[in-house]
Amino acid sequence: MTIIQLEYLLAVANCGSFSLAAGQCFVTQPSLSMQIKALEEELGVILLDRTKKPVIPTEAGEVVLNNAREAIRSYNYVKESVNELKGEISGTLRLGVIPTIGPYLIHRFIPGFIAKYPRVELEIFEMDTVPICEALGRDSLDAALVSSGTTPDGIMEYELFSDRFHAYVSPSSELVDRTNIRIEDIDLRYLILLTQGHCLRDQVLELCAGKRAVKGRYNFDCGSLETIMHIVDCTNCMTILPEMATAFVPAERREQLKPLAKGATSRKIALAVRRTYVKHSIISALRDAILESQKNS
Fold first, then answer.
1. Per-residue DSSP letters for 229-285?
2. What pairs with residue 239 in β-bridges?
3. Is the per-residue pLDDT at 233 higher than 70?
4. What is the pTM of this model?
5. Structural domains of the chain in order of their starting residue, each with its CATH number
6. For the segment 46-94, what is each residue's pLDDT rounded down to a tens digit?
7. At 84, which helix (H) or strand (E)?
């Protein structure tokens, strides 16, 4: 039994496919299949049910996978510990980021992080919160940028900074001349939000909890804040934006941005990791780079 065999097994379980796992591991599918078959022969059990699409672990496979994750984590920790002793920050960091953070934050810290830590290979994946938490749980991500308070038990969050909410209203809205907007001024019939599965949607609905039962006049199944802003521009609707997104509103439309009145809430941006994460030095460096980028923004 080797670490490579366990990594290949974990890759197939995560991808649900031998071909996808082979691509992820940068090997040919026959090579990957041969290694997993050798592992099964050594253990005397079938680890993967190849008749299912996607491929799923057998009962024995689940037991082996649970131990494989711990073995791979410990193996990586050995390398990480040695690198720390040598004063090196190197390795691969797989970072997940939710869509309402990625477009507005990544560009701020990536250049400085890459320049300062050239031996870190950074892999970034834009995903919704639930898939991110699942990926953290099965160790296919090392860390993630999320909205604080949206992750389950077993995930640890390091709060980074606050991100206030702002209203973005239609130029034809009666609210466009307001200097700020109170929560009670928001008419849910004309409020456009991201599709279900986005934590920003849930946070806005929680903000407007007293009006939750009101049915919206428009129904757009949309996962992009930019698309929603375009819809607002051509209707009499409004939406709620996080502050980090407001910097991307064109100058000619900035008068449509309205701060929410005092007492309105904000979200906290957090760096999430498994409670048993091992890449301490890399993740600490990432956290410092993000905080430094906020100071300079």
1. HHHHHTSS-EEEEEHHHHTTS-GGGGGGEEEBPTT--EEEEEEEEETT---HHHHHH
2. 168
3. yes
4. 0.77
5. 1-88 (1.10.10.10), 163-264 (3.40.190.10)
6. 999 999 889 999 999 999 998 998 888 788 778 777 776 777 788 888 9
7. helix 59-85
